[in-house]
Amino acid sequence: MSRVSTTPDGLVIVDKPSGFTSHDVVAKMRGIARTRRVGHAGTLDPMATGVLVLGVEKATKLLGHLALTEKEYLGTVRLGQNTVTDDAEGDITSATDASGVTREAVDAGIAKLTGDIMQVPSKVSAIKINGVRSYKRAREGEDFEIPARPVTVSSFQVYDMREAEAEDGTKVVDLVVSVVCSSGTYIRALARDLGADLGVGGHLTALRRTRVGPYKLDRARTLDQLQEDLTVMPIAEAAAAAFPRWDLEARRASLLTNGVRLEMPDEYEHGRPVAVFGPEGKLLALVESKGGKAKSLAVFA
User: Fold this and answer.
1) Looking at the predicted structure, is the pLDDT value of residue 108 above 70?
2) Which pTM was predicted?
3) Where in the chain is the domain with CATH 3.30.2350.10?
C-alpha cells in the first residue's frame, strides 16, 4: 500500500549556499519534504548563492514556465585576470595589469553589454552541443565552439570600483555590479566579455541571485531553516504572483477542467502563460491564448 504524501503543493524559495549545485539542493529538499517530486526553475552555478526556486509535488508543473522569467543579481567582476571557467572556480589562464582602466572605459564597456545582445555562454556551462553538455566536452579537452545566443540585459550597473592586488601580484580592479537580465543570461560571460572589451581580461569572483521573477531574497530560506520549518508558498499564491490571473465562475471552470477550450478575453497576451482560478480561489490550470482560445499548459484541478 503506497504512502499518501502529506507534503503541500507549492514553491520553496531557497537561499542557496555556495558550493552546492542546483541538483544538490533538489536532493536535499527531497529529504526535507519527504517526496521525490521536487524540481528547480533554472540552475544556479555552484559558486553562486541566493534565490533558487524549487517546486514541490504538483508545483513542479509550474517550473518550466517560471524558468523563463527575469532574474536579478549582485556580483563582483575582477578585471585583470581570465580563468578557464570565467569565474573564480577555474584556473587563471592570463593576467594583465588593469590599474590603468578608467571608470569611463568601464561604463562604455558595460553600455555595449546592455540591452538585446548576442552572448556566447561559458564553455563549462550546462549548454548542450549536439546532445552533450558543454562542460563535459571542455573537461575532455575537446576543441569546440558554442554559438552565440540572444539575451536581454535590461540593467547593468556598477556600484563600486576599487583597485586590488591579486595573489600572483597582478594589479586588478574589482567591480561590484548589479544585473537584471532575461533567462539564459550568463553573468560570468558578461564579466569575461567586459574584460575582453577593456583589453585586460575579466572573470566573476562572487555572485548572489536576489530575484527570480516575482520571488525575492526576503522570501528565501536557507536549507538549515527549511530543515527546521519547511516553508512552502501555496501553489495558488505562487501562480498568482508570477502570471496574469483569470478568474472563472463555477460553470466555465468546470468546462475548462473537462477539456473545453474557452474563449479568452483580449487582455491576455498571445502565447503568455495565464493562471486560471475557479471559485474560492482554487488554481485550476495554466493556459495560454492560441487563436483567442485557452490552450492548457498544465492542469492542477
Assistant:
1) yes
2) 0.89
3) 10-69+213-234, 73-204
